[in-house]
Amino acid sequence: MTVSLLQRILHEREEMRPAERRVADYVGTAPSEVIHMSMARLSELCSVSDPTIMRFCRRFGFDGYQDFKLNLAQSLVPSAPFAYEQITPQDSIGNIVRKTCRNSLNAVQRLAEDLDPEQVAEGAQLLQAASWTGIYATGISEVNALDAEHKFQRLGMRCQALLGKQRQWMHAESARPGDVALIFSQSGHTKQMVEVATAARAGGARVVAVAAGDSPLARVSDAVIAVLPYDRTELMTPLASRLNHHLVTNMLVTAIAIASGSEFPDQLPALDSWQTDKI
Questions:
Q1: What digits encode the pLDDT tens for the residues 7-41?
Q2: If 0-12 CB within 10 Å is exposed, 13-18 middle and 19+ buried, where does residue 272 land?
Q3: Residues in contact with 41: Cβ distance below 8 Å, sequence separation at least 6, in sequence order
Q4: CB atoms < 10 A from the CB of 182, how many?
Q5: What is the 3-state secondary structure (H, E, C) of the chain?
Q6: Exposed/middle/buried for 215, CB within 10 Å: 0-12, 13-18, 19+?
Q7: Structural domains of the chain in order of their starting residue, each with its CATH number
Q8: What range(s) does the HTH rpiR-type domain occupy (predicted)?
Q9: φ, ψ for residue 102 (rounded to 5)?
């Protein structure tokens, strides 16, 4: 796998002089802010001179600050860090089936390697202790909110999927201590979700975000379950990140079920009080 610019900065940090190390620390902490920042502003925030910024950029092979920012921005673009087969209009149905399944399996395998179990545990603890949980999402992530609502209700939890900007804002503004806002966002950069999290916390609620770890939403949440946005932008790409968000929901459900003493924590039918008629 190609080493990203951020990984190189982290790897070389200990070899830097104190001034450059301050730049490395700031870039590593807030890369999405640095790409929109002037060199003068970065120099001011890091308490270094402009020549120090230039030396820092040249250390990694860039001619100047703008070139450095461009490459930093490219390193933040979501990509699939796993074996990936592009689907094209020329593919047969057989190829579409095979590639979709294989790409999804690879994304799930990568999730297993990247996901921090402690983050899942912290999220589950907050959700289990909640008196009421509002589940927020927008766009395609709304399907994750509905899935979570159904599964948490089967555990007997008081929760509701809140869809639509007006409805979300109304509930977020009325949040209170004891409530939890569970927010699904692939990128973590959606302004609406960041505002919902900020409003819910202002009312005393706790916020659990399932989103990219280094994102604005993550920074305003009490607990983050970091899921890298693995999707590629090629034509007809399956949305593997949404699948991984579904898996995180299942992990939370199982963790809560075990903590609640369920006899069959990984079998949702055993938790389901709503029996359906079968033919």
A1: 788 788 889 999 999 999 888 878 878 998 999 99
A2: middle
A3: none
A4: 30
A5: CCCCHHHHHHHHHHHCCHHHHHHHHHHHHCHHHHCCCCHHHHHHHHCCCHHHHHHHHHHCCCCCHHHHHHHHHHHHCCCCCCCCCCCCCCCCHHHHHHHHHHHHHHHHHHHHHHCCHHHHHHHHHHHHHCCEEEEECCHHHHHHHHHHHHHHHHCCCCEEEECCHHHHHHHHHCCCCCEEEEEECCCCCCHHHHHHHHHHHHCCCEEEEEECCCCHHHHCCCEEEECCCCCCCCCCCCCHHHHHHHHHHHHHHHHHHHHCCCCCCCCHHHHCCCCCCCC
A6: buried
A7: 5-76 (1.10.10.10), 93-271 (3.40.50.10490)
A8: 3-79
A9: -70, -45
Whole-number Å distance between alpha carbons of 247 and 218: 19
**Dihedral (Cα; 190, 26, 206, 243), 10-degree rounding:** 50
Distance CA 5, CA 235 (A): 27
Identify the CA nearest to 61 among candidates 72, 50, 45. Answer: 72
Tokens of 105: 């399996």
Rounded Cα distance, 53 and 63, in Å: 12
Q: How far is 40 from 128, CA to CA, in rounded Å?
A: 47
Cα angle for residues 193, 197, 200 (degrees, 5° grid): 135
Distant-in-sequence, close-in-space partners of 16: CB < 8 Å, separation ≥ 6: 24, 56, 59
Query: For 57-66, what is each residue's pLDDT tens digit?
Result: 999 999 999 9
